[in-house]
Queue: 4 jobs
Job 1
Amino acid sequence: MAEALGDLNLSTRKLALVLNGAAGKKDAHANEDKIRAALSPHVREFVSYRVQNGSEIAQAAKRAAREGADVVLALGGDGTQSAVAGALVGSDVIMAVLPGGTFNYFARELGVGETLDAALATLISGQLRRIDVGDVNGRTFLNNASFGVYPEILERREAVYQRWGRSRIAAYWSVLLTLWDMRAPMQLKLTLDGKTGQYRTPLAFAARSAYQLESLGLEGAEAVRSGQMALFLAKGHRPRPLIAAAFRLAFGKVARGQDFELLIADEILIETRQPRRLLAFDGEKERATGPFRLRVQRAALTVIVPAAVSENTVVPVAGATAA
């Protein structure tokens, strides 16, 4: 559910850019110069905050807000955008999105453009909307929160990248290696809107991005647009059927009932036998302690979207992904 707030007047705003200086020093410097040149003529004040790694992005965004920034933006992928959103959620500070990752699902869902130039043009002429985001125990997410084998894939992928370099082939290989080595599925106790059940699955992911669900050929987009949480549970319990399901997902051929079970609820409580688990939020992994309460924070984040976008186009954001 999106709430229109009207036009954006940048000339009265202080704008803060959060930039990861370690992500290719030459590119970072060039991008900062380009962003500053494009936006400075349109804003009251332009400041930038350099960080040395991705873990510092959220703190830099919070600092920018404390120091009076009206708009905070970062160039990066969904993990970067998720960190900024978590720092600004529940406040009046505006978030602007500059896509700089591989999939950029959040930027694509908002319709801000898939290139830096397009996103800068959107920022200059855009309008404001308040959108929903996902939440797990106070941790904001924009595309998905995943439990089980997917966070393990991300961990394996880092090791593969370190040995063979970053490539799509290396990413796919990490998926196959992790699924093939999988031993036992998770035992979950789920409470959905007050109803409790026991489930056995190797993968659970909570989806809050209608755009992403539709791009992957998955159901649940309308429930997400209505402000609910969509929880997918993988049905395969052994490596071979899981690998087959992964290939079907890659080609948009997954089938509800055959490959996954879809549960829809306003709020979900997940309890596991091992309360401390590795989770993935928007493609970034971290350890967290359960039980895990998943909910939707309504109209909790103010973002900039294209002026021409209709209210029905911008949907509640945060959900499932292959990234």
Job 2
Amino acid sequence: MNLRKLDDEHYPAFSTGQAAELLGVEQPFLRSLDNAGVVSPQRSSGGHRRYSRHQLGLAGRLRELFDEGHTLASAQRILHLETELDQARQEIAKLKQDLAQWQEANGSG
């Protein structure tokens, strides 16, 4: 057994039933996200949906947005913008770190 897979947020470890239970939603909700192409789980050899922790996070956030009254289209857009913002923040943090290291190496700062 490869325990490193448990640390991989993209490893498809959860069945539809398990995913629904963890999120507190009904299984048809998850199937509807798959049918809409919003959250597309991998399939087991038997054809069953298998969700990763990352996909559960997306589905959970979509559920929150739906509960706030957003449509599927607006929820997808919000999710996309949140992802872009998170990536931009990570890039800024990396650039700040690189700048600090450069300043330290060059005696400025």
Job 3
Amino acid sequence: MKHLYLMRHGETLFNVRHKIQGWCDSPLTENGIEQAKKAGALLQGIPFDHYYSSTAERCCDTLEIVAGDVPYQRLKALKERNFGLFEGESEDLNPSWHDPSFTYDDLFPHYGGEYLHDVSKRMVEALTEIMEKPDHQYVLAVSHAGACYGFCEGLSAPIDLTLNGGFKNCNILHFTYDQHTFSFVEILHI
């Protein structure tokens, strides 16, 4: 049985300023750095053999704080959902989570962004390819809230990340991987 720990990056300047942050980037805040340190302490003792990160600076910085000076691979497939022309704009433009009749798919793809099914497909394909490697038993991958949500939506048994307080910065999804199947174990909250 293999283990995947899929982590969201630490808090960023755009998170604090309530800016839409997909493929654009902003640095970790002091709080984000502290969150990553707490996540590192939480994961201490897990015998990770491979590390992966989105190519975004916020994810790479988070991984480097969590794991220290370890080699890791940056993958574009682990990037956040692309929000097109809305990148860097106010989160006030986002569709409401409380109104299921108007979703992100109704807005962002029409302005150069991605559909959720495209994010789901690239995340599931990338993480499956990683976990299929024979020497990958304990993997830590740092990504983004929307990308992790897409991954969870793309599984045969989708997981609702809005439960239990949501999926906050530096939270970690733990999955097992066996016979080409991801099974959700738990959310680790810092």
Job 4
Amino acid sequence: MPRIAIRHGRLGDPGPGDPPASAGLTFGVEEEFLLLDPATGATLPRAAAILAADPPLPPGATLHRELRATQVETATGVCTGARQLRDQLVRNRKALADAARWHGAVVASAGTPVLSGPSTSENQGGRFGDIDRLYRGMVTDYEACGCHVHVGIPDVETAVAVMNHLRPWLPSLLALSVNSPFDHGRDTGYGSWRAVQQSRFPGAGIPPYFPDSGAYRAEVRRLVECGALVDESMSFWLLRPSTSFPTLEFRVADVASTVDEAVLQAVLSRALVRRALAELAEGVAPPELSGQVAAAALWAAARDGIDGDGVHPVRARRLPAWQLVDELVTHVAPALDDTGDRDLVAILLERLRRDGSGARRQRKAVTAGLPALLATLTHRA
């Protein structure tokens, strides 16, 4: 969950014949979804029944509970190619949708609900209970859903070094993903209200620069000792080394409106990692960032997504969001060529330019009524 790392990196275990994690080669995706009442469009607490149904998933894929009973999460197995990843995402979404239908719910791909049910809070034990007790009203109705991308990196030292190189690109990944304009029936005016909700947690946002993995671990321990985090497997940074898998985890994006948009996030994230690995091998230093400018860039991306101006985190100036996206694609072009993904990225970006962001599509659907809204939120391709 990109919003509040309740559990760190629950990527599905490797399936039969899956490769081990390899630096910048393997990847996988976790997707968090909302459960809705098809009659009203409001969130519906049916997660326990759907999880108990144990729907059939592809080899290596898994299904998990989330913080609130109105949410569920799927995770792919370990993948090496965009086509393999897309196939698993399609099959995961279909299996989950079929199971939800049996229990009177529909599965929605939205970063926040358009309408919330009467109550999404329940008494919980274990780690979820610890989170409820620590963050209190901040998580009582916290139904934010994200798309997490894991990219294979075998050791934490390399993961932290790569993370330093990727910090400037996180706002553009968020801008491409915005899919949460509503909050309790209100249009917030933001493309990603999920990102705004997430920003309220201690230490949220673009991670700081860390000279090595020891400094990274020390900072996490410090936040735990300050009472800001439940334990050392939690952080609110939008990029972090997984404590459960040999991966670097991107937690910046809203859950994707469509499978292809999730694939776009995964392919760009992997390309960023591959480019950073190449820069490390060449001795290229990571760019310097102002923490305040980086926060402004993330805020601008959450507000307008791809439909307005963003902020260049390094040059500290406003630029059209699509110009920033184009710069990202140019930056990772050699990595996209290595994996054969350049044409795919061009096609998917052109589709986004034509159709608009998930947030724009949600707003359009709301004005057309509940059937149009549900059709938009449950579209899988």
